[in-house]
Amino acid sequence: MYPARFSNLPPYAFPRLRALLAGIPAGGPVMSMTIGEPQHAFPSWIAPIIAEEMAGFGKYPANDGLPVLRAEIAAWFNRRYGVPLDPETQIMPLNGTREGLYSAGMVLGPETKDGQPIVLMPNPLYPDYMVSTIRHGAKPIFVPATAEKGHLPDYSSVSPAVLNRTSLCYICSPANPQGAVASRDYWKALLTLAEQYDFKVLADECYSEIYRNAPPSGAMEVAHEMGIDPNRVVVFHSLSKRSNLPGLRAGFVASGAETIRRFNQLRSYAGAPPPNPLQVVAARVWADEAHVIENRALYAAKYTLADEIFGNVPGYTPPEAGFFLWLPVKDGQAATVKLWKETGVRVLPGAFLSQEQDGVIPGVGYIRVAMVSEFYEMKRGLETLYNSLFEVR
């Protein structure tokens, strides 16, 4: 026998993409613009640190992470957001943000709230939000994050009947895939709603350090200004995008002391802290900002390039942050097949990042394009894409 709760999950986006293109030969040199895996160089001084710390692989890592790592995360968070965190009680290092985003429902989701609890999430979305919700027995409600809504979910439009049952609310800012950024007013409105209806805000901020102009505001930053209990807000950050280190699996969750105590308690049974040498590396990386500034400049050049290439495309919205383009097309799947068949460039249909809610799939008319390659490779890919899908012939 097998559990039924996962039996109706849709295929994950990338196996689904492989099935869509199976048997169709590439129409040119293959270039993948699908996965958000940074290709910029990570800091050269990392490898020697790992070599120096090799002996640490011979010890089990502490469940709550090395003190030096928690201290550096707290220092960075205070520099970045002006929010002092207790490194002993308010931070837990993660094996990448996925660990925390997935386990959040099990850690924080109540068994009942006026019946079956509801978890709100944006649509399109990172699919782990949905799976975490199903895993702990709650009901996911997908709130459209469409162009008409500024590519962010309008949680204030949700009915009071649903909000009364809401226990958790996911929000990604900067948004994946659209690159939209929640303003201070947006955060204030969401946090006010969370206070009114007594739910927790789970803020996925892993793209926070890749932006065009001003640093995006953070959920805990605004909550701190409003005097809200830090246990109301749970934020997730990562070095994957900030520092081009997706393989390091170095992220963290921060919140109030009781929330972090519960994350630690679950990990004692079901989790695996990052290895000690990699935690030492992560501590050094959080302490250094120079490489982040250099990395951000590389993405800034790509923003400019994308604007130059797609600026005349109807409905094109320049991303405020992150490294994805959310390009409007008539049909995302048809455009993906056409692009692959004609050019060998591989992108992701927006529908594969969306869920049907009330008969609507918000991402149907989009493709997601990851701008993670080096500049000139990226330029070739974007120009090829434009010529295949948008150039008037």
Task: Characterise the protein shown here.
With 393 residues, this protein is α/β, with parallel strands linked by helices. The protein folds into two domains: 128 residues, Aspartate Aminotransferase, domain 1; 243 residues, Type I PLP-dependent aspartate aminotransferase-like (Major domain) (Aspartate Aminotransferase, domain 2, 3-Layer(aba) Sandwich), CATH 3.40.640.10. The strands form three sheets. A seven-stranded mixed beta sheet has the order 2-8-7-6-5-3-4, with helices on both faces. The longest helix has 21 residues. The chain is globular, with a radius of gyration of 21 Å.
Outline the secondary-structure elements:
Layout: H1 13-21, E1 31-32, H2 46-52, H3 67-81, E2 91-95, H4 96-108, E3 118-123, H5 128-135, E4 139-144, H6 160-165, E5 166-172, H7 184-197, E6 200-204, H8 219-226, E7 233-238, H9 239-242, E8 250-254, H10 257-270, H11 276-287, H12 290-310, E9 324-328, H13 332-343, E10 345-346, E11 348-349, E12 366-370, H14 375-389
Parallel strand pairs: 1-10, 3-4, 3-5, 5-6, 6-7
Antiparallel strand pairs: 2-8, 7-8, 9-12, 11-12
